[in-house]
């Protein structure tokens, strides 16, 4: 009888080893899928950026990093990103205008002008749009393309 129990323990240990191996394989497959999805996303987004601003292609990595820091790492872009990634807020009943009212009666999302009693940061200077327009015009695209991206 002891032999049967020892055999059963050995079988269970083999099953445990097989399950652990399968778990490792599944983790590796999952990680591979995540890497492929990330690489695809990075290529798609990088291609979109180069399409909109072809002048970026000739920049060195250091110049590109400076460009990103000066254009994307601003309070304005961080606020826009936060608005795009935040869950939608429930619609409050309109009470005849006010600080947060939208103009034109459409479904446009208003950028808040005040938050917790503090004035909102000023939008970036118009020179940012001018730079984007210049880059778009250099590539033969219309200037409104850059404004839609901002």
Give short descriptive properties of this protein.
single chain, 150 residues, mainly alpha, 2 domains, two-stranded antiparallel ribbon
What is the topology, as strand order, of the major beta sheet?
A: 1-2
Radius of gyration equals 27 Å
Question: Count the helices. How many?
Answer: 5
Order of helices and strands: HHHEEHH
Mean pLDDT: 75
**Fraction of residues in H or I helices:** 55-70%
Apparent shape: elongated
Helix/sheet category:
mainly alpha
Strand content: under 5%
Number of extended strands: 2
Describe this structure in words.
The chain has about 150 residues and is mainly alpha-helical. The C terminus is likely disordered. The longest helix has about 50 residues. It contains five helices and two strands. A hairpin with a 2-residue loop joins strand 1 and strand 2. The chain has a two-stranded antiparallel ribbon with strand order 1-2. It folds into two domains: about 50 residues; about 55 residues, no CATH class.
Overview in brief:
The chain has 150 residues and is mostly helical. The chain contains five helices and two strands; from the N terminus they run αααββαα.
How is the topology of this model organized?
Layout: H1 2-52, H2 61-71, H3 75-85, E1 114-115, E2 118-119, H4 126-138, H5 144-149
Antiparallel strand pairs: 1-2
